[in-house]
Design goal:
The protein is α/β, with parallel strands linked by helices and 388 residues long. The protein is built from four helices and 23 strands. Strand 1 and strand 2 form a beta hairpin. Bound molecules: calcium ion (CA) (3 copies).
Length: 388
């Protein structure tokens, strides 16, 4: 039997369809690749733009926070009403920098609204408002919302004594002054450079406020005839009935979250600049586990809020802008020739114990609304961010 031999007469023709199929597949793949790449590029560009838009919106939030901080001292009603002072108009909640601002490759539009604390959207009772900022870059836009809060500390005078049997002794060139002082031009001042001018036209606070009659010693002899080293309106107010009480001040101090805590057992004498500065005021808490009080010595600057448990003794040159609260019946004693000046207010919040202030040398307590702004700065800021 002859071997069966399969023969194909013409195999050459198969090359053409195979090649065509192959080309078709390549073409499809190529087209797909182009489509995928283009889509990727589009996604990439959109992603980049929306990210940029987010950052532009964020810049608007920061700009608004700065404007609100600058305008916080008279509350936020004026910001909610806009420059025309009327509600229900197009400038409502538009800040001084306008409704739309060019920034980077885009623009941000910012509006401030109330958090509706009292049913009236044009009256802010809780010092809290909402900033809404929309950043737009080309066709991409992002909207961010944040809460701005501002808390001001109200005091009853340059020096407020809320303990029992308050005693004040002033000697030498020391002063307690309730008139409103500017802070020194230079925060890093020393000696006479730390003296400052009176804020023009600003109303005065009482120099010394006390809930009870002060045991008057030193240069103070009579409430109706205070000596030359106490100033204010009135220089001395012993009638009580002020904004705060011992428990108010203690609760307030205890409610704060300190940025820094130091203890008398390890830091009985503080000689370093650890109390913040005008650009970055802070809340500093000094605890007194040693029961010895705290001693400040050397040249120290600080700003914000200083809470001192137990006694506070100052012998160096202490320049502070803000609020000093001496707790737990502590005494405040300044001795030596250093020119220690507190711009803001000092509160003695002793519970059931007598509180004494003993100021000598050239030391002074000067009420300063600018100094109190540093205290307020530690209680203000942005919170509750969210992307809409
Ligand atoms: Ca305002
Ligand atoms: Ca308006
Ligand atoms: Ca509010």
């Amino acid at each position: 039997m002859p071997a069966i031999t399969k023969t194909y007469k013409n195999e050459k023709g198969m090359v053409l369809p195979l090649g065509l199929m192959f080309l078709a597949i390549i073409a499809i793949l190529g087209t797909t690749a182009v489509i995928v790449t283009t889509t990727d590029l589009k996604i990439g560009t959109n992603y980049k733009l929306s990210k940029q838009a987010f950052y532009v919106a964020e810049a608007g939030i920061q700009r608004a926070a700065n404007a609100l901080k600058a305008g916080a001292s008279n509350g936020f009603d004026d910001e909610l009403l806009g420059s025309d002072g009327s509600s229900g108009t197009s400038d409502d909640g538009i800040l001084s920098f306008g409704s739309s601002v060019n920034f980077g490759d885009g623009t941000y539009a910012v509006q401030v609204t109330d958090n509706n604390d009292d049913g009236d959207l044009f009256s802010d009772l809780d010092n809290k408002v909402i900033i809404t900022s929309t950043g737009t870059v080309n066709n991409a836009s992002k909207t961010i919302e944040a809460v701005y809060y501002y808390r001001k500390v109200k005091v009853d005078g340059a020096l407020g004594i809320y303990g029992t049997n308050p005693a004040v002794e002033l000697s030498g060139g020391s002063e307690i002054d309730g008139r409103d002082y500017n802070v020194p031009p230079d925060f890093d001042c020393s000696g006479a450079g730390c003296t400052a001018t009176l804020a023009g036209g600003a109303p005065a606070e009482p120099g010394i406020y006390a809930e009870e009659a002060i045991t008057q010693v030193g240069l103070i002899t009579d409430e109706t005839d205070p000596k030359q080293n106490v100033f204010g309106d009135p220089p001395v107010d012993e009638d009580g009935g002020g904004e705060g009480s011992v428990s108010d001040w203690q609760n307030f101090a205890n409610s704060l979250t300190p940025d820094l805590t130091v203890d008398s057992a390890t830091e009985g004498t503080i000689t370093e600049n650890i109390f913040g500065n005008r650009d970055n005021p802070q809340i500093t808490m000094i605890t007194d586990s040693a029961g010895t009080g705290t001693h400040l010595s050397g040249t120290i600057d600080g700003a914000g809020i200083l809470i001192v448990n137990g006694d506070l003794q100052i012998t160096g040159t202490f320049h502070f802008e803000g609020l000093v609260i001496v707790m737990a019946g502590g005494d405040l004693v300044v001795t030596g020739t250093g020119r220690s000046i507190i711009y803001g207010s000092v509160v003695l919040a002793g519970s059931g114990a007598s509180s004494e202030v003993d100021y000598g040398g050239h030391a002074s307590i000067r009420y300063s609304s600018q100094g109190m702004d540093s205290a307020a700065d530690t209680l203000s800021g942005l919170s509750a961010w969210r992307e809409l």
